[in-house]
Predict the 3D structure of the following.
Amino acid sequence: MTLARSACLSAFAMLAICSFSHASELAFPEHGFSLNLPGEWHIGDQAVVDEINASMKGDPRTAKVQYYRIIYASEQEPDKTLFPTYILVQIVDAPIAPELFAKMFPTIGRQAEKLTGLFEEVADIKVSMETPVYDPATRTGLMPMKGVDADGKNYRGVSVNIPTARNLICLHVYADVSKADEVFAKVVPALQAASLEREVAMSDDWNAAIEKLLKSGNTAED
């Protein structure tokens, strides 16, 4: 078993299927945002994230793909036959230009496809990206995906991408294929509604620029 696969499996072993009876507020003041998630969610053991990151960093092709936190929801007796529900928080520590962000939506470029292939090879998890879309109402980018983990469990995921003046916040939520519709219906809107501190929120000029690019259809890959 590869180190990367072992790291991913270790992470999954510590996760649980979510319940939505309460709400959880999780703050990340160091990056200027907070989340209000339906259900009982908790920031997981950072050692899990460190192990995943070490696996990714061990390959020069994925060395820059690093996660920040892992968030999971607990249940006393999770069904271990299902892919667990969890959220990976990724911070791309640099602002993104509207032209580049617009190119990511609504079509996927070769670079994203290349990155998908690297994840399959390094993490031993099969992933296929679906059509990404930009939501002007929330000013977030959504990138759905699906795949099969090393144990043959089918899962679906949605990456919620939130550009800020400091960085790009990427919130990746995953769930078993049988639970995905229920989970995403509640969790994805909550992620899109992440509360940004005023000093990190994108300017009106940035938002106007990306909306103009998207309306003009100027998102084709160079």
Notes: The domain at 3-216 is CATH 3.40.1000.10 (Protein Transport Mog1p; Chain A). The two ends are 39 Å apart (CA to CA). The helical segments are 3-13, 46-57, 98-104, 110-123, 180-192, 204-216.
